[in-house]
Amino acid sequence: MDGWTAPSAIERELYGAKCRGDWGAYLDALARARLFLAQPRARADAEPGSVRFFPTPRGALVVQTAGTLPAPTPETVYESQGLGWFAKVWTPADPAHLAVNPGTPCEAYLTTTPADLARWRAHAEAAPSFGLPPGGVHALFTGGPLHGAVAHGLAVGAHMAVSNGEFWNALAYHGNGYGRQRARLRDSWDITDREGWLHTLEQLLTARVVSPVWEYALRVRRVLASDFAGPVDTEHWRHAAEAALRRSAELSAEPRLTPDGVTLARPRPGAEVEGEIAGVRRLIGRIARYEQRFRADGLLPEDGWVRSVEAWDIGRASQMARWGLGARYGDLEEAERGVLRAGEAARRTYRSWEEFSAGYALGRCLHFDEEAFGEWYTGALATHLTLTTDPAGPWRNIPWR
Questions:
Q1: In angstroms, rounded to a whole number, what is the distance separating the alpha carbons of residues 342 and 336?
Q2: How far is Cα 134 from Cα 148, in angstroms, rounded to an integer?
Q3: For helices 270-297 and 212-228, what crossing angle results, to 10°?
Q4: What average pLDDT does the segment 150-171 reach?
Q5: pLDDT at 252
Q6: Contact 351, 400 (CB under 8 A)
């Protein structure tokens, strides 16, 4: 079809192979793609982990690739499998055709004889990967915003989209399927219902999941940098943080006048205060060493430093808004509001995509890496470099403000 814009690179590859009549290439592309089957949500909830075939009246089983999926609805969900799985489970009683993306220019009706199933299996076994490969910028060319406020909020979550191999601009989110999305929220976030999702989303949007100690240390330096209009020496930073903690401990021991009268506060144990001070001093050294590595690797400019680690929460909030939709804990309007709030929160704290990314990377490293400079660090660095250099990526095409 002249002038047709494929929703994503997946459908573009299928369409190109079909136009050439190269069905081997078509099956190669299909073997690398997740194939989604519609399932009644009530059945999916009643029989989690199972997938049933619901053929059309004309005897075909419809599957869709990720770019052709409709917006999520409360009643219908989608589960994904690979071509090799279909070849393995197909029986003679199953439909005579597998209908791929029917109604689109890249559609195909594949016969399901034993020879066909063997061919599917061979293509699946030869496929170098399955699903969108992580580490690259994947976008919806149609069906997902590429510019504007919603696109900005979606791009705030691009660190995770790139590392997870997902469309960065998929607001109408299905992820890798309904069951897998629910499992992700349950296993990684202990979210099993709408209330849990809403609570976690709000905590992330207001940056209350990230450690307040990390943010305290960085806030002390921000104040110093503002006061002295220049770089802050690490020992000066440590001394200022220690002095502020000691003063806070002294104030907590002073009597206070409240509407109920004078309240006598109890002084905090000295060992507790000294422990906090020692911990913050260690943390400042740890941050300084990460920033030194960031500068060496191009994650920060030569004189750069991290303003805040709130990006670690805000970036995850942009994704959490969509994850809740994929799990049907929220609807499309709620996901959009969450994404927009994530974009607004990021702009309040940071001044550029690069600043935001450095804050996200530091939060991720402080949480996971323990100064090993292992895959938690190298992954964040690779994603940062990809997003800041890819000419087709969101950070090169969407203004920060």
A1: 10
A2: 25
A3: 70
A4: 97
A5: 64
A6: yes
Q: Indicate if the pLDDT at residue 296 is higher than 70.
A: yes
Q: What is the CA radius of gyration of the chain?
A: 26
Closest to 221 in 3D by CA, of 205, 239, 204, 208: 239
For residues 136 and 164, the answer to whether their CB atoms sit within 8 Å is no
pLDDT band at 97 (very low <50, low <70, confident <90, very high): very high
Distance (Å) of CA 174 to CA 43, 53, 70, 128, 271: 17, 19, 9, 24, 51
Cα separations (Å) of 87 from 51, 117, 176, 198? 14, 5, 19, 40
Indicate whether 67 pLDDT > 50: yes
- Copy the structure tokens of residue 132: 């969108």
* Separation CA 286–CA 309 (nearest Å): 14
Give one word for 262, left, alpha or beta, with left for phi > 0 and alpha for psi -120 to 50: beta
Average predicted confidence (pLDDT) for the chain: 94
d(CA 22, CA 327): 37
97-100 and 60-63 as β-strands: parallel, antiparallel, unpaired?
A: parallel
pLDDT at 80 over 90: yes
Helix H or strand E encompassing 38: strand 35-40
Asked if 33 and 67 touch (Cβ cutoff 8 Å), the reply is no
Taking only the tens place, the pLDDT of each residue in 1-10 is 467 999 999 9
Measure the CA–CA gap between 355 and 344, rounded to whole angstroms: 15
How far from chain centre, in Å, is Cα 76? Answer: 23
Pinpoint the alpha helices (H) of 33-105: 41-46, 83-89
Q: Tell me, what's the pLDDT at 266?
A: 65
Q: In Å, how far are 6, 135, 322 from 326, measured between CA atoms?
A: 23, 22, 6
pLDDT band at 263 (very low <50, low <70, confident <90, very high): low
Bridge-based pairing of strands 35-40 and 60-63 is unpaired
Task: Measure the CA–CA gap between 98 and 356, rounded to whole angstroms.
Answer: 45
Using the Cα atoms of residue 5, residue 11, residue 16 and residue 18 in order, give the sign of their dihedral. negative
Q: What is the mean pLDDT of residues 235-260?
A: 78
364 exposed, middle or buried (CB, 10 Å; 0-12, 13-18, 19+)? buried
pLDDT at 271: 83
Whole-number Å distance between alpha carbons of 44 and 29: 28
Closest alpha carbon to 326 in 134, 151, 171, 168: 171
Residue 259 clears pLDDT 70, i.e. is over it: no
